[in-house]
Amino acid sequence: MSYLRIDHVDKTFSNGARATKVLEAVDLSVEKGQYVSIIGHSGCGKSTLLNIVSGLVAASAGGIVLENRQVDTPGPDRAVVFQNHSLLPWLTVYDNVRLAVDKVFAGKKSRAERHDWTMRNLELVQMVAAKDRRPSEISGGMKQRVGIARALAMEPKVLLLDEPFGALDALTRAHLQDQVMALHRTLGNTVMMITHDVDEAVLLSDRIVMMTNGPRATIGETLDIALPRPRNRLELASDPVYLECRRRVLQFLYERHHYVEAA
Amino acid sequence: MTMQITKNDLVATTVDDDRSIDELYARRRVPLVEKHGARIRAFFAAIVPPMIVLAILLGLWQLLCLAPTSALPSPSRIWSEANDLILHPFFVAGPQDLGLGWRVLTSLQRVAIGFGLASVAGVLLGVVVGQSQWAMRGLDPLFQVLRTVPPLAWLPISLAAFRDSHPSAIFVIFITSIWPIVINTAVGVRNIPQDFRNVAAVLRLDHFEFFWKIMIPSAAPYIFTGLRIGVGLSWLAIVAAEMLTGGVGIGFFIWDAWNSSRLPDIFVALAYIGVTGFVLDRIVAAIGVLATRGAQAS
User: What is the interface pTM, i.e. ipTM, of the complex?
Assistant: First the structure.
């Protein structure tokens, strides 16, 4: 039995009498410690899929099984790093992480241990120096790092990343991708990431799940990335395996399921 | 060639002085105007125009009411007949002969109770209306109608219900000031970004934690807008309420002065009410600024 299983998930959004089936028969198994990316064009329902896994959106049919238990409500075992960081603007960097630590480890860790654990997670993303600043006082990349620290601090069974680097400039994005790779290497988290960036998907993932276009989107193809870790973006740039993986994903996205502008 | 004076040159000239040149430089006298120039200019820019306008208006008023038969007193007559009220706000000459400062404080006490109750009840009611679609559909039309009822109209009902002037006055303040607090809180709660709700859901915050850690800070700017409008309305209501319920408040003072034809006293009382209302508004606004620091999403 796999660690995380998305079991024949359907999702229908109804607006009055009109019902739109966004996802149909999405079926996926993720092994423990695996880094899986879900890629597809905008509007294909990949964010909806992530929200179903996180429990924020209920599936119309099918369900999510995590470690042999069905999960259908949100919880810290499936921590989410949101696309727009979603830090609470009235709390400092430290307090944003501490809020999560206090909630998840209430009764399990002492006050001092919770402080140490908060600091340890801020260290992981190198945000200790800015711990007393508010989100409005730090850059976009730093906010996203705090978002990652907050999610990691919950010790989730699965880390869900919803286009975590989408709103960042190219240099910051590359830097953050390297950091996430390093974190994944040290902590061995199971990760599910939504992205629309082909290079990002190939660089970070063990497996890429390609979604067909909506409505009634489903998994079109999956691709295992057999590149050894640690991976270096400069060396990979001329690696034949990397280039082939990249070509396969691009081919799927732009030849077989090219983006259709919604009418 | 240009001469350059370095620090060492300066030190050499003050050998007998054991203080370092940095220390000397730091202690050099800076003229006050240079030091606080911008602030002094800003202060005068804020103070001078209203002073000029006030002087012009007082002059016009004086001219218009110069005739001995004029219906309203001129500023100079107000000063000659009521300067005790202006100069001595806190005199006590008898149970009904008090300085206006005492009267304002008595009225403020009523406002504090009425507005305090309205704040707590208003925020709680606003949260319910903001959170629940059904409560909003059911209550919102009612609120929109009730909030337009003038304070004085509540007074007979309130007197009939409480049979006592003191709780009636407080009730009138309460019912006048609660609506903007309810309505603004509800809008603030409805506008809590979905992102924050998602964070709360992932963390499994319970209702109580959600209320204190997400809802109140996120809606705080809206809540304080409501409180600020509410405090203004409650100060408006106090005069209406006290005119009919009696007592030692500033509102009753005006009514009393009217009945005994002391028009100059009424003008002084008006100035007291206006200034107090202005200060109340600024206090609530300042608390709002302090309490909502950083609450704006970025």
Answer: 0.88
